[in-house]
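Format notes (please read before filing issues)

Several people have asked whether sequences and structure tokens are stored in separate files. They are not. Every record keeps both together, in the order shown below: the sequence lines, then the token lines. Line labels are part of the format and must not be stripped during preprocessing.
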Amino acid sequence: SNNNESCPLTSVGMPVYNGGKGFEQSLNSIINQSYENLEILISDNHSNDITKEICEKYSKLDKRIKYFRQKLNIGGPKNFEFVLKKSNGKYFLWGASDDFHSENFIEDNFLFLSKNQDFVGSTSINYLGKKNLKDNIFVDFSLEGNLFNRVKIFLKNAWFSHGIFYSLYRSEILKKCPNLNVEFLAFDWAINIFMINHGKINRSRKSYILIGTEGTSNVNNFVKKAQIRKIEFFIPFYKFSILMIRYLENLKIKEYIYIIYYLFKLILSFFINKKNKNL
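Then the structure lines:
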């Protein structure tokens, strides 16, 4: 029942574009979750591969799936916003089209949030890279403590914050986030900052996410495609920086200075990564 407080409806939004067989595996990992009171919202961003057939097939097999196909490609951020707006659950999770969740991911993080009201989100340890977990980069940082500490830890680990973005969130708070449909470099980081401004984010070690390698951030020259404003060729995280400062209005002046320092280091690391990896 959607009104069952002990097991409330939880929404999983899955924006996808040309997901292929990888998307089928990702979708199966959501369908097979131990937490069953789900609505699964798929927004197909006008794919031209087998994604449409996969979605139609599974929507017939599982009544929890609601399949939407965009008439035109509306871009990534708007597609992420679309599934969030369509959601009805008390909790919300974005499910990337190439990620794989352990069977207990939602149950594990739901149980934590239900007992800890000062946390706005909960995620699990995540692995970046290959299907063999032993060969992956392992990420397990959480965002706890006071606001300054949360932001500082995030900026130090921003390049590995995929698991934070794909947290199980309290829907009521996430839906208040502005600029959800605006495309700019690090738009996901801006959403993360908005959420940690409202509370802490847990990292569970009883479940996991395997972050896929077919996402936007792994496409050749993805940075150049995301830098749609000329100023971002000189200040790559310009829009993100403006929003971060706006969201963190409760920080003290001394804390702001430290945050700007960490932001400067993040920008510097961008240019180093761009030179070394041809981003």
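For reference, the curators noted about this record: The two ends are 47 Å apart (CA to CA). The beta strands are 10-16, 38-44, 65-69, 91-94, 100-101, 119-128, 137-139, 168-170, 200-211.
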